[in-house]
Design a protein that fits this description.
Layout lengths: L5 E5 L16 H12 L4 E3 L28 H6 L21 H20 L7 H10 L1 H16 L10 H4 L3 H10 L1 H27 L3 E7 L7 H5 L14 E5 L9 E6 L3 H6 L3 H11 L4 E5 L2 H4 E6 L9 E4 L3 H11 L4 E3 L7 H9 L4 E4 L21 E4 L8 H7 L2 H11 L6 H11 L4 E5 H4 L29 H13 L30
Parallel strand pairs: 1-2, 1-12, 2-3, 3-6, 6-9, 10-11, 11-12
Antiparallel strand pairs: 4-5, 4-7, 7-8
Length: about 525
């Protein structure tokens, strides 16, 4: 897929400012879109939008189809009459600079339940027909997900393999009994998904009207404790009780003698092929209903994956096993047409991975932080980039550029300074300039680098189980000067189009002082 010469910013909605402990799809999200338009950016990249799982990670979700309840804007629900001002008058004293998930989760879910109770009692009557239409249209995944979450709530959040065998293994009589018993709780989870889709749909429409397209994220593997595995056991390599036989990881390398043990169950690719990859096609089609472009995380797993026995203490005892390769992407193309994919081809990349990517014309990734450990032939150096790729200053797994530069040894820092032709005193924007100047058709910079932040703003540290995903910016940090500077560089390196929208001039995207108790449609 050939992309036009454009650029964008990587920022997850949980990082937005706001008074409810976590960024959401409310006013700050719309103002961020206005900022992107003012900065002449054409892409907004997000991480997976699903519910978070182990370690609060969006990459360990209980569903590959659902939206994150924590992103639902409470202010929007206030505007809809599903909450009242008194409901949020005495909020916990949440920090403004990070997400304390342990406090935010019960607080927001409690208010979402209150909004649902009001909906059941007659509030939001104008949404009822749309809610029923949503339940019908999304039933193929929503029915399993909502029942899974309702049963999980009843079991104190325990994984599904610890439930009673009849419901863990989805015996028909048990499914019927639990659906009847938990009718209200099932409907609650459906209501939350309806509100997420409604709010996200408006935000995406707003972005698209301002010339901003959304790049979403699809992790290749899914969490074992998920509705996807519970409802589709035959698509995964599990034992009769539902436990994984083998799990995913990455092999030992220069950074770790034991490799990384991710623990996700492996797909049974033969079983998936027999269905024509129907579950995968449904997943990708569902994601494309939410975003404009899909980034496929750990693309190399389609060529070959590092497979580890489920009882192994580390990933060192694993082995490479071939993935579905061209058969999967041929099925995707037949069902979805020339779908807009970007693939994460980082790490240990072998010729078969490159061959698969090139056979389907899929743009790969170039990360500038990987460019300076070798010589001039390093493929991540800008002078070695090809057009059909996406260049990043860093990703959600990297340090910020400032943190990275100051943690380098003298030899690598000197290599950076030599390449830049300066001392790196403004290294974050030096890297932004390198990315925008690259011949790569698309350049994505992190919001943290745009704001010149250090590792206090890092989103994720791979291998660390806790303390990730919580960074938030403060309102004053997203200011007009950043938009103007980024827009100037974007224009200088030819990453704007003649039909560039002017953006919304009716509102000030940098004024966060306005009351936020009504959703953007009111």
């Amino acid at each position: 897929m050939q992309l036009p010469r454009t650029s964008g910013v990587l920022a997850h909605p949980t990082s937005f400012p706001g008074r409810h402990g976590i960024g959401d799809l409310g006013d700050a999200a719309f103002r961020f879109v206005d900022w992107l338009a003012a900065a002449r950016q054409r892409y907004w990249q997000v991480m997976p939008l699903g519910p978070t799982g182990y370690g609060d990670s969006p990459y360990a979700s209980p569903s590959a189809f659902a939206g994150n309840p924590l992103l639902v804007s409470l202010d929007w629900l206030l505007g809809d009459g599903l909450l009242e001002a008194a409901d949020v008058t005495e909020e916990p004293d949440f920090p403004s600079y990070e997400v304390e998930f342990g406090r935010v989760i019960p607080y927001k879910l409690g208010l979402l339940r209150r909004a649902f109770d009001r909906f059941r009692a007659g509030a939001g009557a104008g949404q009822r027909a749309a809610f029923e239409a949503f339940r019908y249209a999304e039933a193929t995944w929503l029915d399993d997900y909502s029942l899974f979450m309702a049963i999980k709530d009843q079991h104190g959040g325990q994984p599904w393999t610890s439930w009673e065998p009849a419901i863990a293994l989805r015996e028909p009589t048990a499914l019927s009994a639990w659906r009847e018993r938990l009718t209200v709780d099932v409907r609650f989870h459906q209501f939350v998904q309806f509100q997420f889709r409604r709010q996200w749909g408006e935000l995406k429409r707003y972005a698209n009207e301002r010339g901003v397209r959304v790049i979403g994220d699809v992790p290749i593997f899914v969490a074992h404790d998920s509705a996807d595995v519970w409802a589709n056991r035959d698509l995964f390599r599990l034992d009769p009780r539902g436990n994984p036989v083998v799990v995913t990881g990455v092999p030992p390398d220069a950074f770790t003698d034991e490799g990384q043990l991710w623990g996700n169950p492996l797909f049974d690719w033969d079983a998936a092929a027999e269905t024509g990859f129907a579950w995968w096609i449904a997943r990708l089609r569902g994601t494309l209903s939410l975003v404009d472009v899909i980034r496929i995380d750990h693309f190399r797993g389609f060529a070959a994956a590092w497979v580890v026995p489920a009882d192994a203490p580390t990933a060192a005892s694993g082995r490479w096993e071939r993935g579905p390769g061209a058969a999967a992407f041929s099925a995707f193309r037949e069902a979805l047409g020339d779908a807009p994919f970007v693939v994460e081809d980082l790490g240990l990349i072998t010729p078969d991975v490159d061959a698969l990517r090139e056979a389907f014309g899929l743009p790969g990734m170039k990360v500038l932080q990987f460019a300076f450990g070798d010589g001039a032939d390093n493929p991540y150096l800008p002078h070695n980039h090809e057009r059909a790729c996406v260049v990043y200053t860093g990703t959600h797994d990297n340090q910020t550029t400032i943190g990275w530069f100051h943690s380098r040894g003298p030899v690598e820092r000197e290599a950076v300074q030599r390449y830049l032709g300066n001392d790196g005193s403004d290294i974050a924007w030096d890297f932004i300039r390198l990315a925008l100047a690259s011949v790569a058709d698309t350049a994505i910079v992190t919001l943290q680098d745009t704001m010149r932040l250090g590792d206090e703003a890092r989103m994720n540290t791979p291998g660390r189980a806790e303390g990730n995903w919580g960074w938030r910016f403060l309102p004053h940090q997203l200011h007009p000067g950043l938009a103007a500077g980024l827009g100037e560089l974007t224009g200088a390196y030819g990453r704007v189009q003649q039909d560039e929208p002017a953006g919304d001039r009716r509102r000030d995207p940098f004024d966060y002082t306005a009351p936020g108790t009504a959703h953007p449609l009111h």
